[in-house]
TrEMBL record:
<dbReference type="Pfam" id="PF13487">
    <property type="entry name" value="HD_5"/>
</dbReference>
<feature type="domain" description="HD-GYP">
    <location>
        <begin position="316"/>
        <end position="526"/>
    </location>
</feature>
<feature type="region of interest" description="Disordered">
    <location>
        <begin position="1"/>
        <end position="22"/>
    </location>
</feature>
<keyword id="KW-0597">Phosphoprotein</keyword>
<dbReference type="Pfam" id="PF11849">
    <property type="entry name" value="DUF3369"/>
</dbReference>
<dbReference type="InterPro" id="IPR021800">
    <property type="entry name" value="DUF3369"/>
</dbReference>
<dbReference type="InterPro" id="IPR001789">
    <property type="entry name" value="Sig_transdc_resp-reg_receiver"/>
</dbReference>
<dbReference type="InterPro" id="IPR037522">
    <property type="entry name" value="HD_GYP_dom"/>
</dbReference>
<dbReference type="InterPro" id="IPR011006">
    <property type="entry name" value="CheY-like_superfamily"/>
</dbReference>
<feature type="modified residue" description="4-aspartylphosphate">
    <location>
        <position position="83"/>
    </location>
</feature>
<feature type="domain" description="Response regulatory">
    <location>
        <begin position="28"/>
        <end position="152"/>
    </location>
</feature>
<protein>
    <submittedName>
        <fullName>Transcriptional regulator</fullName>
    </submittedName>
</protein>
<dbReference type="InterPro" id="IPR003607">
    <property type="entry name" value="HD/PDEase_dom"/>
</dbReference>
<feature type="compositionally biased region" description="Low complexity">
    <location>
        <begin position="1"/>
        <end position="16"/>
    </location>
</feature>
<dbReference type="InterPro" id="IPR006675">
    <property type="entry name" value="HDIG_dom"/>
</dbReference>
<dbReference type="InterPro" id="IPR052020">
    <property type="entry name" value="Cyclic_di-GMP/3'3'-cGAMP_PDE"/>
</dbReference>
Length: 526
């Protein structure tokens, strides 16, 4: 449609960028009418119309049912030009009700066009049906049709912006909350890509990279943390130069320290309080609208805060792990065998916990936090030996009854030391779990162990796991008071004490690992 300059205000006064601009998402307009001539005339009148540089895509339906199917198939239809009288005298009015009620589509602008206004009085229709305009076909000249279309598209655009803001902010709040729950950088990166896809309501290919500091030994300057779609090859070792234009956009964002919208190479720039910089690239099918850019800017702030939270959490975990290692080193300092022993106990405790989880037992106790901590906490099982005299700790033969009493005190000593320290940390920690293990790994399942003669489920699960692991490793390896046993003899001994010394389910988990040769430690040569 050729328009004179007096109508320019109806379109968009923004100038396009130099060069060939990227294609913009078209406005979808649905024509529902049982007269082919009406379709032809409408198409001729508006097919070349553009609003905000975006063209129209015209969809055609020749009955109310066809119109319903198209609206269901295309929920992003902006405008419906709808005839009233088609299959029945009120087919168009019924379609309005189905669109609003059955499909829940309140955004599409609906303009009724009728050649028989007497059958659908305007006042009644406006009051009783959720339509946005009512026109007789005779009054819809080319100019009037143009005005109706532009006004409808502008109203639709505003409604969509409000709805996108409402839904987008909701998704940001929900997504940021999810990010705060993640406990690893890889999970965090994948979560960011998923949330961006949700905010834009499209399935996007994307990649998230982190710029490492010069002090990050052994790590690339620009590290790919997560990638989806065509960019997954970057996780397999392909260089970023595989995508030269994307590499340039990422380099520009990092150099200029700002977000770059250069469709299809949009790059979000995010910085964290510890100085780390991130870039996120994604590929929506169309250039982003202002409302989408604004939502992503808000989300970037949430990403930064969530990463800061993750960083502080990781620092806290590292501090706890350092404390655990330092305490374990105290025992290693006095016992040259303890170092390798505790590492084997750590790996095997982790493996048995995973096996118990795969067996579907103890679901309430095998929480994600337990699974994360059991291995590291297990290395504290004998920390109480710091209080055992050397002449007893290193005695090459069996201990006499008095010496045995002194040796057994290490369980209580270790539990007390760790329990007291754990009170400084709220909730479950390596120290509190370590206290359970130190104080309970010499308890027997039948209640005949020490130091408290606990039985069955009263013995903490972590202690029941380490009880078997400790004996398993001790029997397999040389000690000052014994030669190493064979794997067969070791398993025979452990199985013979099923239900008396050891938890039968934990024995089953160990037995499965041994039978299937999934023991995560190097067994001594027999």
């Amino acid at each position: 449609m050729n328009l004179d300059n007096n109508n320019d205000w109806l379109i968009d006064d923004s100038s396009s960028a130099q060069g060939t601009p990227p294609p913009l998402r078209p406005w979808k307009v649905l024509i529902v009418d049982d007269e082919k001539d009406v379709h032809t005339a409408t198409r001729l009148a508006i097919q070349d119309l553009r609003y905000k540089e975006r063209p129209l895509t015209l969809l055609n339906a020749y009955s109310a049912q066809q119109g319903f199917e198209l609206v269901r198939e295309h929920p992003d239809i902006a405008l419906i030009l709808l005839d009233v009288v088609m299959e029945t005298d009120n087919a168009g009015l019924k379609l309005v009700h189905r669109i609003r009620e059955e499909l829940g589509n309140s955004l599409a602008r609906i303009v009724l066009r009728t050649g028989q206004p007497g059958q659908a009085p305007e006042q009644d229709v406006i009051l009783n049906y959720d339509i946005n305009d009512y026109k007789t076909k005779t009054e819809l000249t080319v100019q009037k049709l143009f005005t109706v279309v532009i006004a409808s598209l502008r109203a639709y655009e505003n409604l969509v912006a409000i709805e996108k803001n409402r839904q987008g902010l909701g998704k940001i709040l929900e997504g940021a909350g999810d990010l705060y729950q993640l406990r690893s950088l890889k999970e965090f990166a994948s979560g960011v890509l998923k949330q961006i896809s949700a905010i834009l309501d499209v399935g996007t290919d994307g990649v998230l990279c982190m710029e490492n500091t010069p002090t990050s030994a052994g790590r690339p300057k620009l590290e790919v943390l997560a990638a989806t779609g065509e960019f997954e090859v970057l996780l397999g070792g392909a260089p970023l130069a595989t995508f030269p234009q994307l590499q340039q956009a990422i380099n520009d964002a990092l150099a200029e320290k700002r977000t770059i919208y250069r469709h299809p190479y949009d790059v979000l720039y995010i910085t964290a309080q510890n100085g780390r910089e991130f870039v996120v690239h994604f590929e929506p099918p169309w250039p982003l609208e202002d409302v989408e850019r604004n939502l992503l800017e808000v989300f970037c702030q949430r990403i930064s805060s969530a990463y800061d939270n993750l960083y502080l959490y990781s620092q806290l975990v590292s501090a706890q792990e350092a404390t655990v290692v330092a305490l374990a080193d105290l025992a290693e300092f006095r016992d040259s065998d303890t170092g390798e022993h505790v590492l084997r106990v750590q790996r095997l405790s982790d493996a048995i916990a995973r096996e118990l989880q795969s067996m579907g037992v103890y679901p309430e106790q095998l929480t994600p936090q337990f699974m994360e901590m059991i291995g590291m906490a297990s290395i504290l099982h004998d920390v109480g030996k710091v209080g055992t005299p050397d002449h007893i700790l290193f005695k090459p033969g069996k201990l006499d009854p008095e010496e045995r009493v002194i040796m057994e005190q290490h369980a209580t000593i270790g539990a007390n030391i760790l329990r007291k320290a754990s009170l400084l940390v709220e909730g479950t920690s390596y120290l509190s779990l370590g206290a359970d293990i130190a104080g309970g790994h010499h308890e027997y399942f039948d209640g005949s162990g020490y130091p408290r003669r606990l039985a069955g489920q009263d013995i903490p699960l972590a202690a029941r796991i380490v009880a078997i692991v400790d004996v398993f490793d001790a029997l397999l390896h040389k000690r000052p008071y014994k030669e190493p046993w064979t794997l067969g003899d070791t398993m025979s001994y452990i199985n013979s004490r099923c239900g008396t010394q050891f938890d039968p389910l934990v024995i089953e988990a160990l037995d499965r690992l041994v039978r299937e040769k999934r023991i995560p430690i190097r067994l001594p040569e027999q």
